[in-house]
Specification:
Elements: E1 2-7, H1 12-24, E2 28-34, E3 54-58, H2 64-74, E4 78-81, H3 88-93, H4 96-117, E5 125-131, H5 155-174, E6 178-183, E7 185-187, H6 196-205, E8 210-213, E9 219-224, H7 225-238, E10 244-247, E11 252-254, H8 255-269, E12 281-284, H9 299-305, H10 313-326, H11 328-334, H12 339-347
Parallel strand pairs: 1-2, 1-4, 2-3, 4-5, 5-6, 6-10, 7-9, 8-12
Antiparallel strand pairs: 9-11
Helix pairs in contact: 1-7, 2-4, 4-5, 6-8
Bound molecules: nicotinamide-adenine-dinucleotide and thymidine-5'-diphosphate (TYD).
Residues 88, 185, 195-196, 199, 211-213, 218, 220, 255, 287 line the site of thymidine-5'-diphosphate (TYD).
């Protein structure tokens, strides 16, 4: 029986990863360690919460003593670390929380793993889940590879880059067995509606303005969240200790093309006239320091570990839209409370 602590398991990607591991590995004990911030939601895990190999522990990774206690109690064989403040716009409005959770929190977990594991490092692994945003911004051509120099440009990406460096430093200095993956933009169910896709799907549905930053020309490389979870599974079990793997969909879209496609699909699903939802598009003030283009070269992961994305984007996008349209209760719950306040604050001066 292996015990794995997954941090941030109540968030978007974490909940998909927990679902995959709890179902696929009945012999593993999966501990979901999460603070339940605005982005963490146990409703994302209703279908697995009663499984015998799953346990939820509410904790803040910034609390170093609590991390030592939890590691001491559960004696994990592995850690898959996803807990983070993850939204670029929030990092521009209030960077400090990103420093605490993403940098200090990661260091606390590294210290707890080091202390608990001591020199018994066989079969132990600290897996750090990171983002392609650490590499900075691309021009019209080229791709991020694992050796691309770090050039983070937002408080979010700078805090993630810093945590990546710390994980590598603990590997190099203390011999802590670790692996890192850097993934492109994910899409799918259970994503908090502050990120582009769920926010715009919700706004289109409610006939609210669609706030496109700048000219909508920025490019992102979109990957189905379940393909990211599958990649993490493959890397956790077969990745080389000390290595880094890029994960991406080879699926680049300008924001405006993607938004128009979403409008078109939703016009048809909501029985609206063709072109009706596009009228909601409103160009607003650009995000400060807005990275122009992200594009990942994931050939190392594909060639060495045999992972490939499973879904065509158009199919995944339609499935995603269907899920949000069918999940009123979930959307109503996450947009109640502080959400409206967040939305008004974030978009009032744009
Ligand atoms: P998310 O914001 O949906 O979820 C983050 C989770 O972490 C939440 O459950 C939250 O409660 C928890 N959390 C936050 N602060 C915490 C703290 N101090 N202690 C304990 N738990 C805390 O994020 P996500 O989109 O699922 O991203 C997960 C990870 O994947 C992050 O590390 C992010 O940097 C990385 N990532 C995300 C994307 C993407 O497209 N969303 C792409 C590449 C990498
Ligand atoms: P986002 O989902 O925040 O992911 P990231 O910034 O981490 O890539 O944004 C995706 C793209 O959509 C990004 O170029 C910013 C843009 N965007 C808008 O144009 N309007 C919005 O309201 C949001 C949230 C994002």
């Amino acid at each position: 029986m292996k015990t794995i602590i997954i941090t941030g398991g109540a968030g978007f990607i974490g909940s998909h990863l927990i679902r995959l591991f709890v179902n696929k590995y009945p012999d593993y004990k999966i501990i979901n360690l999460d603070k339940l911030t605005y982005a963490g939601n146990l409703a994302n895990l209703k279908d697995v919460e009663k499984m015998p190999n799953y346990e939820f522990v509410k904790a803040d990774i910034v609390d170093a003593d609590h991390m030592f206690e939890i590691f001491d109690k559960y004696q994990p064989d592995g850690v898959i670390h996803l807990a983070a403040e993850s939204h670029v716009d929030r990092s521009i409005a209030n960077p400090n929380e990103f420093i605490f959770t993403n940098i200090v929190g990661t260091t606390n977990l590294l210290n707890a793993a080091r202390k608990t594991w001591g020199d018994k490092l066989d079969d132990k692994l600290f897996y750090h889940v990171s983002t392609d945003e650490v590499y900075g911004s691309l021009g019209e051509t080229g791709f991020f590879v694992e050796t691309t120099a770090y050039d983070p440009r937002s408080p979010y990406s700078a805090s993630k880059a810093s945590s990546d460096h710390l994980v590598r430093a603990y590997g190099h200095t203390f011999g802590l067995p670790s692996v890192i993956s850097n993934c492109s933009n994910n899409y799918g169910s259970y994503q908090f509606p502050e990120k582009l896709l769920p926010l715009f799907i919700n706004n289109i549905r409610n006939k609210k303005a669609l706030p496109v930053y700048g000219k909508g020309e920025n490019i992102r490389d979109w990957l189905w969240v379940e393909d990211h979870a599958r990649a993490i599974d493959v890397i956790y079990h077969q990745g080389k200790v000390g290595d880094t793997y890029n994960i991406g969909g080879h699926n680049e879209w300008t924001n405006i093309d993607l938004i128009k496609l979403m409008c078109k699909i939703m016009d048809s699903k909501l029985n609206r006239k063709e072109g009706e939802s596009e009228q909601l598009i409103t160009y607003v003030k650009d995000r400060a320091g807005h990275d122009m283009r992200y594009a990942i070269d994931s050939s190392k992961l594909q060639d060495e570990l045999g992972w490939t994305p499973s879904l065509q984007f158009e199919e995944g996008l339609e499935k995603t839209i269907d899920w949000y349209l069918e999940s009123d209760e979930w959307m109503n719950e996450v947009t109640s409370g502080d959400y409206q306040k967040y939305y008004d604050e974030m978009y009032k001066n744009r």
